[in-house]
DNA sequence: TTGAAAGCGTTACCAC
DNA sequence: GTGGTAACGCTTTCAA
């Protein structure tokens, strides 16, 4: 195929000035209609594509937005990326993805990288480790639009897209109680994260509203949200003198770990122990045996976050806004009625 | 925080020429040791970061590689991306991800996009629809290094990273036979893809080597590799007068669809029907009830593909090479011995 | 309506 | 060893 065609090539071919070509192609006023058409036709014919580096250099804003996610291999996140990407593309933006690998230090690097690229805005989800938000404050102070999703912070200054965390946990526990479970355990995560705190509150409130005691030894809290932690938490819970008869795990990975550990002990779900996890559409479909899960509309989370960011980019005066994307409880076999 | 610091700012501050600063920072020869240190210190202090657009404009090669994948939400692919990304970063390259959504037309767009960005090389996996390779030939003809993985083409001109497809299918069928299954069905996919063809050959050869007949009605072939197809294929197989007693599904998604359909009919796995799928590490861990799967080292596929590409980028004379990443058969409950 | 020229931040090639 | 200068491809004044 051809070498890259520049604006100069078109100008030369047509005997006009490069600046005229630029104006014509960018739809700016001040080019005669006939000439404009001629230029456009030639650009098409020569398959002209603007050099993004030249454009990026000369413009403040090369229409790129950055994403910071904890990881890319979890379907929850990749599906959100998908939602962001589609929305961004539809609005003429491209997307750069960076991964914090759930680490605070790497999250700071991500910000630096995106800053270098001069992204017009950032969509981020906090790493598990992050409990200090200075690096994000700096971003905001620089005037770079910033939107958080799922695990959020600085909500007074940044828009955010979150799940209805407290309600979802409340509803899950309510469901367990309605199905005859009485000693409901809770497997949480890093306490400084909003999602953990809120889900925990939902759990506690549901117990209280049903006049059930809240036993602190049934709450395994402040642990990294990993597969291993899920298994470990279950080991701990099953070592109790009075074992729980159900477990709410507040995160996909924890839930999978919990499920695995329960089975490895030859305990039956839901007979011996009921289990509710958190998950997204895909896993709600695949994972077996039929795990009741709080399910997220991940793609929508992504597209809404991107919408909020673009709105903020186009109008710096818009007020921060928190959008709640409702979850729904997908009831399956793992919490079947007792007796 | 500060506005972006340019090389000029440093030069001004130190009373030297911009070109000198550039040379010092890039480790090029021709700068006095003392001055070089002074410049470096100032760059650090001012938190100087080169403007990637300026660099990209002036250099032929802004150290970016492009990825074209069928989708990002399948763990198989996102894990490969992860492997590519880490390897790229470790070598000073950044990565741009494009998604074909399994569509031929969009795949062509991906190539255009990457071309616009002037990527130094491309790592690609063919979309399901792709059976014509002109668009990739163009890339090669332009001299842009290209490496394929999993679903490959143009292997005489491009390096590729593939799984041991025939062997894996052979081994899976062998395993089924050893466990007492006799009427083993096959659920395939788009025939023009190398992976489909090879896995199919493995299936047939295993039957033949064990003196078992190859029934064409037990082979559901040339279908899109979707969840729905998996279900449909099973419906078709179970409608046969002589039903299969085991199924080999040659792709993750097909396998999940198959599993789901089998269960919805209240058939027991492995008692009524044995099932082997293809999957990757994550799903081999999560998916239940214990599905025997051919498992891929996805992260490694990505990192090896990236290695091959970088080698090719740095030396245009390297010969195309096909690296086979072995799979392994993860034997679980879904193929337990009969009787 | 069009063209010329400056400039975005960087590198590379020449002089000195 | 160091400084000037052109060049990368494009947009955007400013003149004409």
Structure overview:
By secondary structure, chain A is of the alpha/beta class. The first copy, chain A, folds into three domains: 7-50, no CATH class; 64-163 and 297-326, Response regulator (Rossmann fold); 165-296 and 329-335, Rossmann fold (3-Layer(aba) Sandwich). Helices cover 45% and strands 16% of the residues of chain A. Chain A is built from 13 helices and twelve strands. Chain A has helices at residues 7-14, 18-25, 33-45, 52-58, 75-90, 104-116, 134-141, 165-178, 194-209, 227-238, 252-264, 281-286, 298-314, and strands at 64-69, 94-99, 121-124, 146-149, 159-163, 184-187, 219-220, 246-249, 274-280, 292-296, 322-325, 328-330. Chain A has a six-stranded parallel β-sheet, sandwiched between helices. In chain A, strand 8, helix 11 (252-264) and strand 9 (274-280) form a beta-alpha-beta unit. The first copy, chain A, starts with 6 loop residues before the first helix and ends in a 9-residue tail after the last strand. The mean pLDDT of chain A is 91. At the A-B interface, helix 4, helix 5, strand 2, helix 6 and helix 11 of A face helix 4, helix 5, strand 2, helix 6 and helix 11 of B. Chain B binds a DNA duplex (16 and 16 nucleotides) through helix 2 and helix 4.
């Amino acid at each position: 195929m051809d070498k890259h065609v520049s604006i100069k090539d078109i100008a030369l071919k047509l005997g006009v000035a490069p600046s005229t070509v630029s104006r014509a192609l960018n739809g700016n006023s001040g080019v005669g209609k006939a000439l404009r058409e001629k230029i456009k036709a030639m650009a098409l014919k020569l398959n002209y594509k603007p050099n993004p580096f030249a454009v990026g250099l000369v413009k403040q804003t090369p229409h790129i937005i950055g994403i910071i996610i904890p990881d890319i291999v979890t379907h929850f996140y990749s599906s959100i990326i998908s939602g962001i990407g589609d929305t961004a593309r539809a609005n003429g933006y491209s997307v750069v993805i960076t991964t914090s690998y759930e680490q605070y230090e790497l999250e700071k690097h991500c910000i630096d990288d995106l800053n270098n690229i001069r992204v017009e805005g950032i969509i981020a989800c906090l790493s598990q480790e992050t409990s200090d938000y200075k690096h994000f404050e700096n971003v905001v102070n620089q005037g770079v639009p910033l939107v958080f999703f799922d695990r959020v912070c600085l909500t007074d200054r940044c828009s955010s897209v979150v799940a209805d965390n407290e309600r979802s946990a409340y509803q899950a526990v309510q469901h367990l109680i309605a199905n005859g479970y009485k000693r409901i355990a809770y497997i949480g995560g890093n306490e400084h994260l909003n999602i953990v705190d809120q889900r925990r509150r939902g759990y506690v409130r549901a117990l209280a509203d049903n006049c059930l005691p809240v036993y602190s030894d049934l709450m395994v809290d402040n642990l990294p949200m990993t597969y291993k932690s899920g298994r470990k938490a279950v080991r701990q819970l099953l070592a109790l003198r009075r074992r729980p008869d159900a477990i709410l795990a507040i995160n996909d990975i924890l839930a999978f770990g919990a499920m695995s550990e329960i089975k490895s002990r030859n305990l039956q779900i839901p007979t011996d122990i009921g289990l509710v996890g958190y998950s997204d559409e895909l896993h709600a479909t695949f994972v077996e045996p039929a795990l009741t899960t709080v399910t997220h509309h991940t793609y929508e989370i992504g597209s809404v976050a991107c919408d909020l960011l673009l709105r903020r980019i186009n109008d710096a005066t818009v007020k921060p806004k928190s959008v709640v994307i409702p979850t729904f409880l997908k009831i399956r076999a793992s919490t079947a009625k007792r007796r």
